[in-house]
């Protein structure tokens, strides 16, 4: 019997990659509107390169962008970038298509739901609260808060312990073959790889750890029903065999 | 002849104090809604005390609030505080009553306009851009960018130099008797104290440095017209005296 389903957050429940791309474009547009003397493509490509090198949580993207473009430091341009980036992130933050419907169906089936995600706890909670999905979840585990990161088995074990369920009673759904799928499979959970977003064709060396592959989040419901009816059939058979 | 007018930003052009109060109240309300087990007044008073001790730019207000209230660290509550604080600040950021009309009148009179403000350059530019007053100004001097703070004479001298005007041709308008009025008077500028906001009855030992005291920002226009007609009358008289 499946008793619990855990979800990754970014690009599984929330459209983070798509959002970040729009927000970065809007930021560059805002900086140019504020007077930054450079064409859109040059600035945008430089920003992507910079984010690639320094990571998306680096707090000085726009400051460094000016340095890389050999422009003078002009706080007005940086402020324009920050404003447009944040406005966009707040206005466009959305759950993945079908996410809320899926969560509701799973709750109706009496399942415990959890989030297991990497990242900054405040930022991750911001996404959960802003998209108003917090009420669906019985627990939220964020790596930078619990002190262990996916794919380390401890974060998955913590999730199982909190719900008091055994690994084979739990499903992990995520977009990353390495951190979500390989990670959850290590502890014996059932795994559903959501082939979506920028990692849809990445880390394929870990594909063998995925029990199921889906391209629509709503397919999680059918998979869990399938697991349950299969288990039921098997146990019926065992009874008959006696 | 008056050729330039400089304005302070916070609580002179932009209603910062009022905004911060609303935002802090909304933050506490959001934290309680997210489950923080404490009554509004207790939490709000503790937050005010904390801000008073650590300053308003301290980045861990909500984290420290939980510690001070002997509550467990719950990132969900902190995130709820942060979201509500920012949503409010973005939605309610407004110019002081009459500010835009005043700036427009002064531009029509052919005056150069500048901002001389303390604070973080990005945050100050954010306020200027979000309230859309940037186009009124020929220059913006922010202390943490130019490296000198009000009331130091250098920041006022920089403003005068950028516009190429003499001190007696310039007016400084601000809500702080010490940093704005005493500061600008030191270099010989004309001073208009805007008796407004939380400093409306503070630093009165510097009142002698104020040439004018106003309670509505729009009075700046009349004051400058007054100075000009008085100077004109005086120079006419001097001509007659010849």
UniProtKB/TrEMBL annotation, chains A, B:
The UniProt entry, under CDD domains, shows: HAD_Neu5Ac-Pase_like
Similarity comment text for this entry? Belongs to the HAD-like hydrolase superfamily.
Record-level GO BP terms: small molecule metabolic process
Cofactor(s) listed in the protein's UniProt record: Mg(2+)
Query: PANTHER family from the entry?
Result: GLYCERALDEHYDE 3-PHOSPHATE PHOSPHATASE, N-ACYLNEURAMINATE-9-PHOSPHATASE
State what this protein does.
Answer: Catalyzes the dephosphorylation of D,L-glyceraldehyde 3-phosphate in vitro.
Q: Which NCBIfam families match?
A: CTE7, HAD-SF-IA-v1, HAD-SF-IA-v3
Q: Which Pfam families match?
A: Hydrolase
- For this entry, the protein name equals Glyceraldehyde 3-phosphate phosphatase
Tell me yes or no: is Magnesium among this UniProt entry's keywords.
Answer: yes
Q: Which domain of life is it from?
A: Archaea
Which species does this protein come from? Thermococcus waiotapuensis
From the record, what ranges are coiled-coil? none
Give the matching InterPro entries: HAD-like_hydrolase, HAD-like_sf, HAD-SF_hydro_IA, HAD-SF_hydro_IA_CTE7, HAD_sf
Sorted alphabetically, the keyword list is: Hydrolase, Magnesium, Metal-binding
